[in-house]
Amino acid sequence: MYVERLLQLNIATLACLATVLIGMGQQSAVLPLAMFVLTIASVWLNDFTRRISFGRGVTGVAQVAALLLSLASFRLDRDVLILSLARLLVFWQIVVLYQKKDVRTYWHQLQLSLLQVVVAALLAQDFLFGLLLIVYLFTALCAVTLIFLYEERNRYQRADRAAPILVVAGSRWPLGRQQPSFSGVLAGRPGVQRELFTRMLKTAGASLMLSVLVFLLVPRFGHSAWRGPGGGPRPAIGFDDRVRLGSLVSGSILQNPQKVLEIRFFREAPEPEDPNPVYLVRNDIYLRGALLTQYNRGEWKRPRPRLPRMDHPVFRQLPGGREQVRQEITTEPLPRNELFCVWPFTIPPETQGYVNYDPSSGRLTRAHPSPFHPTTYRLWTTAFDLGWQSRMTPHDDQVEPNRAELLAMPPPDSPNGLPGLAEMAQEWLTEAEIPHSDTYRRALILEGRLRDSGLFEYSLAPVQRDLSLDPVEDFTVNHRQGHCEYFATALAMMLRSARIPARIIVGFHTDEWHDRGNFFLARQLHAHTWVEAYLEADQVPEDLRKELHGYQWSSGAWLRLDPTPASRSPGGVLGALTTTSWLNWLDNIWSRYVIHMDRGQQQTAVYRPATEAVKGAAQRVADLGWWRGLFKQLRQWLGLNRWLGISEDWVDGLLAAALSVLLVAVGYGGGRLFWNVWAARLQTQGGPERQRPRSMVAFYRRLEAILARRGLVRGASQTQREFAARAGQALPQSVHSLRLAKLPGEIVEAFYRVRFGGQPLDKQGAEAVEQALAQLDGAISRKG
Amino acid sequence: MLRLRKPSVLSSSRGRTALCREGFYYSLELVFVFVVAFLADMNLLMVLAGMMIGPLWFSRRLVAATLRGLVICRKMPREICAGDMLVVTLAISNTRRRMGSWALVAEEQIRREGDSGRQPPLQASVLFSHVPAGQQRDRVYRGRISQRGRYRFGPLEISTRFPFGFFRRVVAIDQTDWLMVYPRLGRLTGQWRARHHESFDGAKRRERRHGGASGDFYGARPWRSGDSRRFIHWRSSARHGSLIVRQFDQQRNRDLALLVELWQPEMPALEHFENVELAVSFAATIIADICRKGGSDMVIGTTAAPAECFRGPASAVLLRDAMAALATAEADYRDRLPQLLQAVVERIDRGTEVVLVSTRAVNLSDSRRFGALVADLARRGMLTQIRAVNTADPTLARYFEAQ
Question: What ipTM describes this predicted complex?
Answer without folding.
Answer: 0.77
